[in-house]
TrEMBL record:
UniProt superkingdom: Archaea
Binding site for NAD(+): D30, R35, T86, T121, E153, K264, R329
Chain ranges of the UDP-glucose/GDP-mannose dehydrogenase C-terminal domain: 315-418
Cross-referenced SUPFAM superfamilies: 6-phosphogluconate dehydrogenase C-terminal domain-like (SSF48179), NAD(P)-binding Rossmann-fold domains (SSF51735), UDP-glucose/GDP-mannose dehydrogenase C-terminal domain (SSF52413)
Catalytic residues (positions): C261 (nucleophile)
GO MF annotation terms: NAD binding; UDP-glucose 6-dehydrogenase activity
Name this polypeptide is given: UDP-glucose 6-dehydrogenase
Family: Belongs to the UDP-glucose/GDP-mannose dehydrogenase family.
Binding-site residues, substrate: F150, L151, K152, E153, K205, Y250, I251, Y252, A253, G254, G258, K322
Keywords: NAD, Oxidoreductase
Catalytic activity: UDP-alpha-D-glucose + 2 NAD(+) + H2O = UDP-alpha-D-glucuronate + 2 NADH + 3 H(+)
EC number assigned by the record: 1.1.1.22
């Protein structure tokens, strides 16, 4: 099949590449010329395991074509995926300007009957507005489908090639059949297709993210209660996760969730709810608990060192919002590093992939970036672990002892064993 993917970010590039991998001809269209020119040269704009080789391979087979020319792409394809960003708007809602701009651009360039599939996370009703805009500006017959994306950054290729489910929201049997055929090679079991109406498909994506965010905020709240009472959230997690109704996933306490999806999608759903006259009490608290949780490490640091942190240096391990990605959007590291600097501290930071993106978030002479995890610790007064990349999991305690001014660790993801306290380290964790 010949497809166009509009928006070549985390979702568009990964899904476009996976469709190409299955032998489809995929045009990847973006307005960012630098991004497209780099991709043509095999330079990948994001870090995602296994992506680079697949992009280069499929480009060389001419299955994957990068372009800024939407018309060229639409002339040679009749399935059009929208995978552009839907960031938070100033009022906490969803900024759909990019989506509606793309709808108008499709209308201006489309020449033959096509299926328009929205992969971007959009509020209930948006697909119908996209259809309306295209119909108002073009006579070409179009069909629409909502096909929200569930990939996880850091495991995106695997998620895309082996999806848990493929949601297709459409009222049109032909569109459903086309999408089932396109996704056929990704599923050995056709039970993976879940077909529903457009609005429910749009809502499913928000509810999935809201549920996962709720689990995290709930556990963070439980961790805070554990800490007050002397219980240990790690033991509690093992105790409750063993109940199959609860399970072990997404019940880790930590220093808050981040990323380009959970924070904005929880806020987006709150906004949709309020716009429709319903006050979403649980969702509002999920967001509020998360914002407070991003400050938990700062509270622990100021309890230990006082509110004035000038003359102190902190070594940071991990800046991305989670391991295996370079994405720092809404990452807890942004709050934590800003708050340290605000209190006069100097920060030395290391992350395996996210340093360049982080540099765009905070500009300060008080931050230095180093390219080795142990160099971060030279003359630092404490180590702060924010993102649990695998390379941070095992500690060389001799190296830490040699380099740190004080043997103090703030472990924002509860990855270190309590026994390191026996080696003279002071270990501060979340909820234990
Ligand atoms: P992104 O910011 O990484 O990429 C968006 C791309 O769209 C950018 O390259 C931008 O230049 C391009 N773009 C903007 N306007 C355009 C236009 N008019 N024409 C062509 N290209 C244009 O975004 P993302 O993280 O891939 O997210 C895309 C959507 O998918 C969002 O709605 C997001 O909520 C959703 N989503 C994201 C993830 C994730 O893990 N990142 C997972 C599931 C769903």
């Amino acid at each position: 099949m010949n497809l166009t993917i509009i928006g070549v970010g985390y979702v568009g590039l990964v899904t476009g590449t996976c469709f190409a991998e299955m032998g489809n001809k995929v045009y990847c269209v973006d307005i960012d010329e630098k991004r497209i020119n780099n991709l043509k040269k095999g330079i990948i704009p994001i870090y995602e395991p296994h992506l680079e080789t697949m992009v280069i391979d499929n480009q060389s087979k001419n299955n994957l074509i990068f372009t800024t020319n939407l018309k060229e792409a639409l002339d040679d394809s009749n399935i059009i995926f929208i995978a552009i960003g839907t960031p938070e708007s100033e009022g906490g809602g969803v900024n759909l300007d990019f989506i509606f701009t793309v709808a108008k651009q499709i209308a201006d360039n489309i020449t033959k009957e096509s299926l328009i599939v929205t992969k971007s996370t959009v509020p209930v009703g948006t697909n119908f507005k996209i259809k309306e805009i295209i119909n108002e500006n073009s006579d070409v017959e179009i069909h629409i489908a909502s096909n929200p994306e569930f990939l996880k950054e850091g495991a995106a290729i695997d998620d895309c090639l082996h999806p848990d489910r493929i949601i297709i929201g459409s009222e049109d049997i032909k569109s459903i059949e086309i999408l089932k055929e396109l996704y056929g090679p990704f599923v050995s079991n056709h039970d993976r297709f879940i077909i529903m109406d457009v609005k429910s498909a749009e809502m499913t994506k928000y509810v999935a993210n809201a549920m996962l965010a709720t689990k995290i905020s709930f556990m963070n709240e439980m961790a805070n209660i554990c800490e007050k009472t002397g219980a240990n959230i790690q033991n509690v997690r093992l105790g409750i996760g063993s109940d199959k109704r609860i399970g072990y996933k997404y019940i880790y306490a930590g220093c808050g969730y981040g990323g380009s999806c959970f924070p904005k999608d929880v806020k987006g759903l709150i906004n949709t709810s309020l716009e429709n006259g319903y006050i979403p009490s649980i969702l509002s608290m999920v967001d509020e608990v998360n914002e407070a949780q991003k400050m938990v490490l700062i509270d622990k640091i100021t309890n230990r060192f006082g509110h004035d942190l000038s003359n102190l240096t902190f070594g940071i391990w991990g800046l991305s919002f989670k391991p295996q990605t370079d994405d720092v959007r809404s990452a807890p590291s942004i709050t934590i590093v800003s708050e340290l600097i605000k209190r006069g501290a100097r920060v030395k930071a290391y992350d395996p992939k996210a340093i360049e993106n982080f540099k765009c978030e905070i500009k300060s002479d008080n931050i230095t970036y180093v390219d080795s995890k142990y160099d971060v610790l030279d003359n630092a007064d404490a180590l702060i672990l924010i993102t649990e990349w695998k390379e941070f999991r095992s500690l060389d305690l001799n190296e830490l002892s040699k380099r740190l001014n004080q043997k103090i660790i703030f472990d924002g993801r509860n990855i270190y064993p309590k026994r390191i306290e026996d080696e003279g380290f002071e270990l501060h964790q979340i909820g234990c």
